[in-house]
Design a protein that fits this description.
Layout lengths: L5 E4 L9 E5 L4 E5 L5 E6 L3 E5 L2 H5 L5 E4 L6 H15 L12
Antiparallel strand pairs: 1-2, 2-3, 3-4, 4-5, 5-6
């Protein structure tokens, strides 16, 4: 039986209809849109992906809004949170990812 790569849902009134998932290690966050597609992924090792939703892509939008493919630190995490808020009006709590 496969286990989901995330362990916890984040409940917040600002996230009505959307979901945020956090990996068991606390190093990766996924953001899901209303249509269920993954519109954001942040990972300390692999950077960030901020994408349009599948619904938007089916209507002709390109996939990538902002993508990096390198290690990410606190500044990139805050940028990711800001981009998700800007593009999807989803407030990602800043304390979901811890940096030493």
């Amino acid at each position: 039986m496969s286990q989901e790569p995330w362990t916890e849902d984040v409940a917040d009134e600002d996230l009505v209809g959307e979901q945020i998932k956090v990996s068991a290690l606390g190093t990766t966050v996924w953001v899901l849109s209303l249509d269920g597609s993954t519109v954001g992924r942040f990972d300390k090792r692999f950077g960030m992906d901020v994408h349009t939703s599948v619904e938007q892509q089916m209507a002709g939008a390109s996939q990538c809004l902002h993508c990096t493919h390198e290690r990410a630190g606190p500044a990139e995490w805050l940028e990711f949170c800001s981009l998700i808020d800007q593009h999807f009006d989803i407030k990602v709590p800043h304390d979901l990812i811890k940096f030493d």
